[in-house]
Amino acid sequence: xxxxxxxxxxxxxxxxxxxxxxxxxxxxxxxxxxxxxxxxxxxxxxxxxxxxxxxxxxxxxxxxxxxxxxxxxxxxxxxxxxxxxxxxxxxxxxxxxxxxxxxxxxxxxxxxxxxxxxxxxxxxxxxxxxxxxxxxxxxxxxxxxxxxxxxxxxxxxxxxxxxxxxxxxxxxxxxxxxxxxxxxxxxxxxxxxxxxxxxxxxxxxxxxxxxxxxxxxxxxxxxxxxxxxxxxxxxxxxxxxxxxxxxxxxxxxxxxxxxxxx
Length: 262
Prior knowledge:
Helix content: 25-40%
Radius of gyration: 19 Å
Structural class: alpha/beta
């Protein structure tokens, strides 16, 4: 089965392409670097020719309110039109758990617009809403650092590894269109400040982490469980500690000098 992965060279897309190919599917990694641009429409028709499924794991290069909205609206409209013209039978898109509750944020308003376009389109679809990735926990600290302290919300979240996200996306892509939304997350829920603090401590980052119930998340106020998947969600098995140990092992394997110095 031909599956075109839009954003197929990124963190999730590259893992997804590998998994699909490993299961015998013709997985095409489409991105501007391969001549496929969802904003201009360049290369879309050719890439989708003969495809049964298209998977959208793109993200906006800018999170400025107007820019991110324009990106998701333009990209999604172009991709939906091209998928319909090509006779694609299943449109799969990656989104975020809690999106519909975060309209205060410009980024999440753009994701809401993306989801609504897909729901209103003519191609049968599955929207996969994932929780935050383990790979981005340190990034949360970095963007929340005010020069003295890392100030983050105390609400719960239930992060997941990028590899497990790719596994879930592969299952969705090779399954029957849900014409609805599937939530996915990791096995454990943590207060955001607690996991950020733990993450920084394990890598020797001495910045002080302050839990602030009023701190914003991408510009939006969180309730206690906004970022936690609901009943019926698909939960991965990889814990944060297991992921962190695996990541450390992979880093050492790719850097023999660092491994020898331990």
